[in-house]
Amino acid sequence: MNDAVPLVPPDRLAKNSVGLAHIVFFVVAAAAPLTAVVGASPAAFAFGNGAGVPGAFVLAGLLYLVFSVGFAAMSRQIGGAGAFYTYIAQGLGKPAGVGGAFVALVTYSAVQIAVYALFGVFVAAALTPLGLDAPWWLWALVALVAVMFCGQRNIAFSGAILGVCMLAEIAILLLLDIGILAKGGGPEGFTFSSFAPATVFAPGLGVALVFVIGSFIGFEATAIFGEEAEQPEKTIPRATYIAVLLITVFYAFSTWAAVQFYGPSQVQAVAGTGLETFYFTAAGAVLGGWSVEVMNLLLITSLFACILSFHNTLNRYFFALGREGLALRALGKVHGVHGSPHVAGYVQSAVAAVILALFVSSGADPYTVVFSFMSALAVLGILAVQVLVSLAVIRFFRVTPTRHGVWTTLIAPALGLVGLVGALVLVTVNLSLLTGSESPLVMAFPYGIALVFLIGAGFSLFLRQRRPELYASLGEVFS
């Protein structure tokens, strides 16, 4: 049997293997539109600013568009699979970069664990009436194996799967939205009051933003595919802007349609009495009973797509750290045919399986503990890393010659930084609401994120003393 000749270098991801559409699919699938709208927005309606939720999505979208200005500009000069790690290292120094990388790993791992649990809950609920009575964790394990297999393939393979899932979940929500419009709205007719300042900035906006900001997690992953993208200096910035705009417009439109169905004066009360049925009731009334069944099915595929997207993101973080010697060197190897970080995929899937097993053995409830706690940890972590990236962008362009203007290199990143710090504070003070728990463990999450950062930074300083040659190569830009 002849040995296969590697088609890509053993420590480089396959170049030109993913285009603009695939990257957008990855990012929007990670945001899980159907899950975010059906799962997160009812809580924002109930506990936040009520009819102003669509406007809150617009505010969050504007924040991330401003953040993306400097982020996209820096992506034209920074390549590689390390994404936030590389950006922070280039802008703020190697210790901050490694600390940020550790926080990013915890963040994306937490997202993955949360969605595995939710996937298991939904699949168990869907199959039990059919006679397939199995615990949630078994279906989560099935998903883990399937996701690991998909992650071993060329990145375009996952992109195609994500594209199909994303289009299907967007289609069912658009049908509902259009159906509401076709019926002339609801009891109060059509109104755009959801975008009026008095409605958006009503009491509860801060609480609504806690749920709304969490719905955007994943858009920043565009940069992690820089090493594999076609014309990354153009593709990555375009993908970032397109993804943020798509997510913002879609979320704002879908939540606005829900406001029209129930009426601006009633939507908050209705959401408060039935978070789980909020959108299903509307779908059944507007489209018919078939849409409720389809929506339940597409929720499952939406969750699978979300896991697959974050799996690929995590793989590339592990790969980048392995290639640079911050983790096992084997993690920095790629598949000889598919050009994928397959070793990283095996390792991080094993880590996810162990964490899930620990939750199962402790008897933790998959929804109120595993999903809720891990989601809150992820929102905190991603905001913390985004704050670091904003600082890195400002610092990077202060010391790096560029043709970009002051808006791109200073004003926009500074505005994004202020907004992200504000969002981080809002999430921190509303952790009990976000998780539904006042557990000391939950209240310790902000300190845990800070500790993870300090451990990463400390590890970097340890390397500077003991392995200066390795330290010198940290945050290297691969092209």
Please explain how this structure is put together.
This protein is mainly α and 479 residues long. 73% of the residues lie in helices and 0% in strands. The chain contains 20 helices and no strands. It is globular and about 70 Å long. 58% of the residues are buried. Residues 1-8 have low confidence and may be disordered. It is found in: Membrane. The chain crosses the membrane at residues 20-47, 53-74, 95-128, 134-151, 160-182, 194-219, 239-259, 279-308, 343-364, 370-394, 406-429, 441-463. Keywords: Membrane, Transmembrane, Transmembrane helix.
Q: How does the helix and strand content classify structurally?
A: mainly alpha
**What's the count of strands?**
0
Low-confidence stretches: 1-8
**Secondary-structure element string:** HHHHHHHHHHHHHHHHHHHH
Instruction: Give the strand content.
Output: under 5%
Global outline? globular
Largest pleated sheet: none
Give the helix proportion (percent range). Answer: over 70%
C-alpha end-to-end distance: 34 Å
Based on CA atoms alone, the radius of gyration comes out at 22 Å
Estimate the mean pLDDT confidence.
Answer: 86
Count of runs of 4 or more consecutive helical residues: 20
